[in-house]
Every structure is written in C-alpha cells, then in structure tokens.
Amino acid sequence: MPVSVPVSVPVPVPGATTASPETLALWEASGNLPPPPPPTGEAPSPLPAAPLPAAPPSPSGPLASRQGPVPRCPPGMVGVPAGPFTRGGSPEAVSVAPGWPGRAHLPRPVEVRDVGAFCIDRYEHPGRPGALPTRYVPYSTAVKACQDLGRRLCRDDEWAKACQGPDGWLWPYGPEWRQGACNADAPAGIGDPRLLRPSGSYPACASPYGAMDMEGNVSEWVETTDPRWAGEAWLAGGTLWTGVYGRGCAARHAHGNGQTSTEDDGFRCCADPAR
C-alpha cells in the first residue's frame, strides 16, 4: 500500500461551507504543508444548478431486469443491488483532452461486468450535505479514512455501477448530458478551488441509486481489482474541470502509485450490506 505523503490545505470557498472537522483532521494526520497562496482576481462563478426534471429517467435496458433486491444500508449510504451492468465509454464520449498521453487518462472500456450488492456513501467524504468534499488527500489516506469509519474504499466496478446504473449511462442522471445538472463544465478558473461547491448543491446530480455528485466537483479514489490495472492508483469520474480528465461516469485517471494529492482528488466509502 502506498505511503502517505504531505498534503496541502486548500483555500476555503468564499461564501460556502468551510472544511469539515473530519477533513481538517485528515490533513493534520497527513502532515499538511502551509496553505498555498489564495487565488488572485475575482472569484469565478460556477454554472447555476439545473432544476430537477419532472420525470427523471429510470434504467430500462435489458440488464435492468436482472438486478437483485436493493440492500439495506447504514444511514448516509445508499444500496446498490447485485447484478450485471454495462460500464465504460470511449475517449470521444468522455471528451478526453487530445493532448493527454498514455493510458493514465483513458476511460474504462465498454464491457458488461457483474458485482455483488453493496452500500455506497450518498455524498462524497465527509459524507454530509452542505460540506465541501474532502480533497488534497493521497490514496493511502483515503483508504485509512474509510477503514476508520468501519467501511472501505469503493472498488472500481462498484463505483462505476453506482454512477452508471445497469444500463451504462454516461452521466449519473441519465444517458444524455444536461447543462447544470452537476457542478461540472467550469466556464473558467481551471484548478481554482473556489469553484468547488458543497455536497448536494446540485440536486439533479443524482445517480440511479441516489448517490450524489458522482460527476463534477472532485474525482474519487477507488480500489482497482482488475488485473489489467494492477499497481496503479486510479480516481473515478470527471472532475469539476472537464478539460483535464474528461467528463461523466466513465472518465478516470491514474496517479501512479497514489502518492500525489491535488485539489480535485477526493473519495467516498463503500461497505458490504448488513446480513
């Protein structure tokens, strides 16, 4: 397992909830460096949140009928049933920037996978609506944070199914992109932490199982169980800054052995359902 490295404390978002006590404790435990200088100039504005659609789409493909019962989960988590699902997307579909080299920025390949039932945090860590997502944490810190909660880091396939549903949607809210559904597509200020928003600020950014903000805001560390990607630490999902790693549920990127930590690296936890 990678060794934790020092992380930097991000600048709080003006007018939004500041870092949670859990986030501050993680930074302190990681031996954080002094904060970076605050961004200069006028704070950029994110896209306004789109309203909830009158009739959100629901999975209806051939795999939707092959799902097990929704498991019971602890408070703050949502259940994802066992069963097959379609995951992945093409580089063109997730809008990977042409200049990014190598497989470290390639999306998950399109394929049918099968997972058992599991529970996943409704919100990005620290797991509360209205709290800014935890970020600037390396892979090993995310692993330990989930373990300390009696949970674990989500496996790659679990995260993908929680976001794409059984039908393999490219977006957590459906098969078609909707402007403003999630805190993504930053109009300016790539890398500016002031564009991050508290969890749950975009109510339309809900997956088929009710997990929030799986697109936009921050990417999320996952456990990689596929031997094709062994030895690499991956983050799932598009970030707020879509021109960097692509967009949507199939987007992902690798950070070598997971010892790096930046302003768009976050996580959420998973758990096995109660027996």
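The above is record 1. Record 2 follows with the same two-line structure.
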Amino acid sequence: MKSILVRSLTLLLICGTLFCACACAANVNPPLKIVRGEPLNTEEPETNKPVEIVQPSFVGGESAFEPDGFLFSGRVFLMGDSTMCGAYSESRVEGVDIMGWGNPFADYFLQTDGDLSGVRVYNYGASGASSRSYLEISTTTGDSQTIRIYQYVMDHLKAGDYLVIQFGHNDEDQKTADQYTSAALSADEVGAQGTDETGVYSFEWVLETYYIKPCLERGAVPVLATPIATRDPLTGLGLTQRHQAYCEVMQALAERYGIPLLDLTEATRLYYENAVAEGGVRATEVLHAYTNENRTAIDQVHLSRYGAFVVAGLCAEEVRKTDLTLARFLLPEPSVVLTPRVN
C-alpha cells in the first residue's frame, strides 16, 4: 500500500510540474527492445521478441545540458561494457549471480502508469566491449536479423533521447589489441582514423567521433558515465587507480561539449569504503558475482544482482545531481527492491 501511495503522489507531482503529451504507440522497424529484465540478448537471440514502443514526449526544463526546445522522449539508451550489460542467459544469472547495472536502472524511475508515460531504459551494454570494439559487435534478433548493435542504436536515436555512454574497463587492456585505446593520446595527436603512428587509438577521439558528436547531431543528449570500481579481494575496497586517466578524459569531454558526467568511479569507491568500514572486508562480496557455478570464488569485476541494483541506485543519484529533465522522473524509492544474498 505504501508503494502504491508513493507512486500515486509521484504521479500527481509530475502531472503538476510537467506538461505531458499523450502517449502514442509507435512501431519502429526493426523494433527496439524494451529492457526491464529483458535485455537485447547476445547469448540467446531466440529470446528476443519484437515489442511495441511507447513514445511519450515531455517538455524539458531549462537544463544547461539540453538543447533549446528539448522535448524528452521518455527514452534512455545505454551503451557500455559488461558491468552495464544485462544480456546474460537465465542459467548464468542463476548459476553465478551476475547482472549489469543497466537493467535495474529502470526501477529507479517512474514507469508508464495509466495515461501518464514515464521513462523507458534500453540496455545495449555488451559483454567485453571497449569504446572501440563496441562499434563492431553484432547480434541476432528474434526474427533472425543480424544487426550491429552500435549502428542499430544510432539508427533509432532521435531528438529528445538520452544516450548514457560508459566505457573504460576494457579500453585499459593493452594486451587486447582490438579493444585498447589510450587515455594519454588526445584527439589532436592522432590522424584522421584516430590512431598515432604506431596504430594506437585515442580514447578521447573514439568517444568524440563515434558517440558524442553523432548523438548531438541527432538532437539527443549524450551522458558520459565513468567506469565503476573493481573490488580488492584483500581489503574489500574499490580499486579505481586504473580508471583515473580515462575519467579525466571523460571529464574534459563533458566540459568541452557541455554535457553531463555521472561519476560512478568515485560513487562506487565511496560506497565500498563505507561498506567495509561498517561491515568489514567481506561486506562488499555480496556486490559481486561468482566466477563459477559452485560459487567458490568471487568475481572482483562483475556485479551480482544485488550489486547491479546498488550501482543502478548510485547512478540514479548521480542523475539527481544534474538539472536534466530525466531527474524529474526519479522515484522517491525504487519500484523494486533487492536484498543481498546470504554468502
């Protein structure tokens, strides 16, 4: 009953402060995938069923991050790596308790309720992706179409949408040539293809060329999100040192283009620090998946279902700090609440 009252009050508040156009059902070809625990599944494509999309329009506020006359479409697209990704098979989710934060992110926002339409989150995070390799990742949809995820999203991204971009984890991997990008190379130091004389790509150039500029050209709002901390097995604390150079690039790009930055690196570091201070080294284990179905070892990088819920909440709080129209649709409390597993 409390949850129903809270949602009702939220609806009344938003009705009073926002002008809402009537929601209309819009068919897109091929249809996009609505994500509420049902991501674009790259492991089991047969589970991808075409869906109908509701496309509401909301008058935007006077956000410094949004163009003049911005009308929020109600759509939030996510591009990123496995820490965001929700495309894990049901058996793997149950076996090792793994989930990316992109799926529960939707639970922190007002959803469609009656005639009032809210936020729809489309999670296109991909396991193993860097900002470079994401550009070429393909999957097969339920109607047997092979699509390149990056191009698929860009083909459907429109004015009034948000695009949350989170890379860095796999860009840092110098051992994997097709993923690595350098945070030390500026866009001005590389050639027309984004590489220096040795063939190394610039992280700044890739983000600018393939994500920020195309998003702005479509009238959508790019939102940069820094990579989440990994877990130190000895202390339980969040490790962020490797991310710092990539975070600095994102910060510089956010300032240059006047776009929002969600600092999940610092948010997760602080969360881990507080959790360990209160509960000891093992307190942060519940935030992470296992490395095997016997559940004998903790995966220090990937999130558990509860960890995904927590990080999604941290991301929602980062959104709350902005003046984005999207922030108006944050619920006082998430519509779904997860509790930590018992190790």
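Residues 1-57 have pLDDT under 50 and may be disordered.
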